[in-house]
Amino acid sequence: MSDDYPRVGPKAAEDEVPVAAGRVRGLSLRAVLPNAITAAALCSGLTGIRFAIGENWRLAIFAIILAGLLDGIDGRIARLLKAQSRFGAELDSLADSLSFGMAPAIIFYLWTLQDLPRLGWFASLAFAICCALRLARFNAQIDVDEQPHKSAGFLTGVPAPVGAGLAFLPFYLWMATGWEEFREPIVCAIWMVAIAFLMISNVATFSWASIRPRRNVRLEVIALVGIVFAALLLEPWWTLAAICIGYLALMPYALMRYARVRRPRRAAVSVSARDS
User: What is the 3-state secondary structure (H, E, C) of 121-180?
Assistant: First the structure.
């Protein structure tokens, strides 16, 4: 009897062994921790909505940020424990859609966009839908071997947690300055739609894998991280705004870096095509 069973659904990781129908095993004990962290991220994102309903905007935003931090460590812990699973991948995508798509859309609507009932709700819907579409595209491409951005160390579009953080840039500036201009519904609606389309765009953006500081500056990088952490404690809103502006400023640089990587790859493909 052949061992080549048809796989059901996408892989959860690049090196995962395909699992066939009828051979699906239960969730292993070591997979409980990363999935519990994912569930905590989901709860944190949805709790942000509760804070927003009570107009506690600070805690609402911090709940989304906490969800982003938890989302950043659950996958790494799963890889460390070798506990990647299809279940974990699906749960992570569902949690991301709720915490970084629906929750920010509702919080943003309650904060300012409800003053424009139609256009504001359209902007919130656009953000939530684009976040879901980005995550669906990610799941659909897990099995695709040829991903130009990923193979070059880049991401396609703005990641969902980063998109949620960027969407709240007007809020950070409003909290830091107290200027009501940053709460203008029309401006905020346009900003939110722009970030939504960045999430589903084909723009190459930096990933953590592509950020590799040289050996002679690694101490400086550690010092910079410490300074940023201290700034978050002392001036959180200005620091969050600066991080968002810095990320946006690096996007053109990421495009240039990717263009330099793509040219030799295209030349190599053309040469191999001629030789064949």
Answer: HHHHHHHHHHHHHHHHHHHHCCCCCCCHHHHCCEEECCCHHHHHHHHCHHHHHHHHHCCH
- Residues in CB range of 179: below 8 A, 6 or more apart: 173
pTM: 0.80
Whether residue 108 contacts residue 168, with contact meaning beta carbons closer than 8 Å, is answered with yes
Strands 204-206 and 154-156 come out as antiparallel
Determine contact, residues 88/158, Cβ cutoff 8 Å.
Answer: no
> What is the spatial distance between Cα 9 and Cα 12, in angstroms, rounded to a whole number?
9
Asked whether the beta carbons of 188 and 170 are under 8 A apart, the reply is: yes
Distance between CA 3 and CA 99 in Å, rounded? Answer: 40
DSSP code of residue 27: P
Region class of 83: left (phi > 0), else alpha (psi between -120 and 50), else beta: alpha
pLDDT in tens, 96-154: 999 999 999 999 999 999 998 889 999 999 999 999 999 988 888 765 555 545 555 67
Map residue 15 onto helix, strand or coil. coil
